[in-house]
Amino acid sequence: MKNYKWLICVAVLFLSGCKKILNLQPTDKLQAGAIFGDPEGVKVYMANLYFQLPVEDFAYFRQGFNQNGGDPNNGGFAPAMVTDEAVHTEFGDFVGDGDFHWWDQGYKLIRDVNLLIDVIPTLSITEPEKAALIGESSFIKAFAYFALVKRYGGVPLMKVSQTYEGNADALKVPRSTEKETWDYVFELCDQAIANLGTEKGRRASKWTAYALKSRAALHAASIAKFGNLAPMSGDAVSQNLVGLQATQANPYYQLSLDASLAIMNSGEFSLFRPNPANPDEAAENYRMIFQDPNGASNEAIFIKGYTLPGNNQGHNYDIWYQPAQSANGWPHPGRMNPTLDFVDLYESYITPGVSAPVVTTTDGNITDYNGFNASTNYLRFDNPNEIFKDKDARLWGTTILPGTNWKGAPIIIQAGYVKPDGSAVIRTKDQIVVGGTTYHTYGAATTSQYSGFDTYGGNNTRTGFSFRKFMNQNASIVPGWNQSTTDFIEFRYAEVLLNYAEAVVESGAGDVTAAAKAIWAQCFTGSQTKKQAVHIDCTVYGYHDHHTDRCRCGFVCGGRTHRCIYYYCYHRCQCMDGLFAGIQRGQRNHSGNDQYDDH
Description:
Blueprint: H1 5-17, H2 32-36, H3 39-52, E1 86-88, H4 104-119, H5 127-152, H6 178-195, H7 206-226, H8 235-238, H9 249-264, H10 279-291, E2 300-304, H11 317-321, E3 336-338, H12 340-344, H13 393-398, E4 399-400, E5 405-406, E6 409-410, E7 416-418, E8 424-426, E9 431-434, E10 437-440, E11 466-467, E12 488-492, H14 493-507, H15 512-520, H16 552-556, H17 569-572, H18 576-580, E13 594-595
Helix pairs in contact: 1-3, 4-5, 5-6, 5-7, 6-7, 7-9, 7-14, 9-14, 14-15
């Protein structure tokens, strides 16, 4: 699986030291002999194209892709922090006009691909090798246009390279409709599928192209079906440059169904460790998929590799989002704080099929956001994470809950304590001695011994939860920029199964039995040896309060718990309006207060 990762490194070094070789004069043409005179030149150029792919991974932030050239100067603000799934420790995040754009870089990548396509017929390689290059070029181009259309709707389609002959106006390409743009994405996917082989590796394969088509077609179908829930107006809409007709939904769902089914019927992929003995094992299996996708080669379809630490090679996920207790001298940990709203979405094995909000009071009230009240009857627990007992295994694999272990130590997340007289100290650094034992507001004496609520340095979770998914539990933090080398899994088999099931539910087409099996294959119910996943009944996630026709956000986003911390999921299912517009989300925090009469 690691065979091609060196290509990315070679491309980075090649570009930083020899940029001129990729910008030969004239700049609108490549001299095939200079770049493609031998197979290694082709590999280097192709590695550069893969490096430019708009993969929304560890180096993707509001400023754009591949933000790992040095100090990213972004404070660790991840896309998830402009949703209700997570917040930054210092709050105040918002989407600015220049955030998450990808325009100039997108058309640069498309230009580079078109130039390669021009020279493929002239290369001294075999016909199968030429076909493979055509397939890879089509896949990369489809990936690029998918990134553009989901951001901007219809865009200019640069189907061939251009030659400047003194008339700039002749080079102007009008904007295509959104439907034309989506259709071109699928046309390119089909070209990739027709030309690529089935070999697994770090370069695109037939299965990678099918996975892209499965995802992109589902995105288009969702926009068509649910676009009326976020209506738009203006010239771009009236000219069909933005938006899709509802009648276009089912044809796109069918494309997603067919692409998903091709992978499902291939026999090439399966779920990682599909038969855990218990929820703890299921949670660890889920975590391991993201810590080391290479160990889940049966589930991974396409992986972006980070082989070496350093600028333009590694990333910063571990330093930004590590709990403060395991920061190892890094001054800015703990930035990713999953919200209680997000944690509440996860089901319980006791009552599967419905979300299971965290309950801490005897009356079961989950709408009181006023903080500690001495007159309230609180439930008593033997340890902080007992509150989450029987919650979905994926919660335990995604988040660091108060008192759970990380890197061999319990993570202390506590916001205060209740004195013997019933009064409370909340979010104010203090201590009290009771029965000869000293108790601290945040659970320990010094900032290196706890990970919650203290505002010092912006280094502690403010919601009561820290982040586990994608983090490397086995490696100590190296306190410096771009030192993490965890690989990123872009396409995996579990997503394909969810795509198929969703397309069946939303369109009424496809095989309902196969869809149910696709979901059941990922379930762990406590009595069955399966991983916990989502239920087809979308009322699990309770969004009927916002959209009575279908509470689609719960299912469309894979329960959001399955695809959590992914920003564009909200956009494709048109959830932003219902989840955020004019709605106060409650700002619920799990404080983890220590009540001393429990000891």
